[in-house]
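Need the bound structure for D-xylitol-5-phosphate, inputs here:
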Amino acid sequence: MENLNTNKRHEIPLIAPSILSADFSNIALDIRRMEEAGADILHCDVMDGIFVPNITFGPKFIKDIRKVTKLPLDVHLMITKPERYIDSFIDAGADYLTIHYEATDILLPTLEKIKNRGIKAGTVISPDTPVDVLKEALVLSDIVLLMSVYPGFGGQKFIEKSLSRLEELVALAKEISPNCLIEIDGGVTLENASAIKKAGADILVAGNTVFTSPNPKQTIAELKSI
Ligand code: DX5
Ligand code: ZN
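Answer from helper R.:
Posting the output first, comments after.
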């Protein structure tokens, strides 16, 4: 896959539509629509009904998606003890595997394990987790995902304090791990994309905003340019 890290600190952020907002009965078609609209990455939300109050899909679904697209798959694991399923999701074709700080007691070894298998490893923090807990994890993370809504559902409202948290994270990453990509997830809209970009995000996840748009191509272009 292309090396996304080459985009680090580019003016233009990468856009990662979240397939949580897709029609799962028409997933190949919806993925094609996102490719044609200029998506850079596909964001895939895995939920177990325990770490978050919702259930989505597992490795089989990722494996099937892998067959219909060349876009990098950014697999966001919202599951308890993600270490149990790392190999399954990597075997299924994940390019990025991100795990929640709050979901595991063995974050650092698990990040190491992901990296040793040759894909990009990432750490996610939920809205109530202080940014500075990431100090150690940043060293081992190719990507850090900052949740700007409580994980579990698409279409929620962006939590405003996420902007200052994003700035804090960008500053911390610059100090500790300058090549680490910073991704924001939840409630990204055409209204707040400019401020998010200014705060330093490299990747914007967008579910509702892109999938409900009558013109996803224009919406993705606008998310990048505004
Ligand atoms: C929420 C998920 C998000 C979600 C984003 O738990 O992690 O990726 O799909 O959807 P929007 O952009 O609609 O908030
Ligand atoms: Zn997500």
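Comments: The beta strands are 14-17, 42-47, 73-78, 96-100, 120-125, 143-147, 181-185, 203-206. Residues 18, 43, 45, 76, 185, 205 surround zinc ion (ligand 2) (CB under 6 Å).
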